[in-house]
Amino acid sequence: MCYNKAGYEEALAKLNEINVEVALDFKAYNPENFCRAFLSTDIKTDAITSNIAETFNGYIINARTKHLLHMLEEIKSNLMHRMIQKKQPMEKCTSVFCPRIQTKLDHKKDKAAMCEVLPSTMKLFNVTCFTYQVVVNLETMSCTCKKWDMLGIPYKHAIACIFFLNREAEEFVHQCYTKESYMTAYAGSIPPLVGERYWPKVTYQLQPPSIKIWPSRPRKKRVKDPYENPKKPGVLTKNGVEMTCSLCNVKGHNKSKCPKKGKIVPPEPTAKRPRGRPSLGKEAEL
Q1: 113, 144, 155, 189: which has the highest count of C-beta atoms within 10 A?
Q2: pTM to 2 decimal places
Q3: How far is residue 258's CA from residue 88's CA, in Å, rounded to a whole number?
Q4: For 260-280, how does the pLDDT look when each residue is reduced to its tens digit (9 = 90+)?
């Protein structure tokens, strides 16, 4: 998914060339509500999924079948254990940022060599990468591609400008990714509770809440998509997708069932671009 409106419109134009009806159906679902190009940059994430809810639902799926008190006790115990489990490894971390964020940043540093920087001021730059040009503002921590704005981690365009000023990219990473912010998020705790044997005794005649038994067995699992792969939860099958042969470029079959198999030489894979900044030749060295 594209991070900016220019990329979104290009992708939509390609979809319109392939299938006009599919493009119209896509626009009917209001892409402004789920496409990255229209998301707010205040929340530093590009994920548009319900994975957090699904993960928590799977985390408590066994506890949901139990009595109310036992269900709450098991959820409490699991959350207590999870918070400590998340906190302990980070306490041993010696870096300023979380390890995964540092790995992502290092990966983007390698791509910065592909960018050409043209400064306007010490905080405003034009960056050319292949055939497109963007504007990077180090003061507002923004870029035309919107990846830095949305994630809070400098992308290759911004890192190239940062290196141009002989500064470190870690200075421009959002504070939400620091070890300090992570530890603050897990600083709270759930207090332990004694068992039922040690509860205080009361003289009131308490009646348990009425339990209404609904017909049929209670649902435990989520409602699945009709085209979801039963062997791979969350992955849709290729039902309705028209295949294109990579040998003859004809739709309706793949290369394993191509009638011209053995008669056509498969194209060679494109060579990968070497890592690092391309050399300028001997003349530049002189």
Answers
A1: 155
A2: 0.65
A3: 55
A4: 887 777 767 677 767 666 555
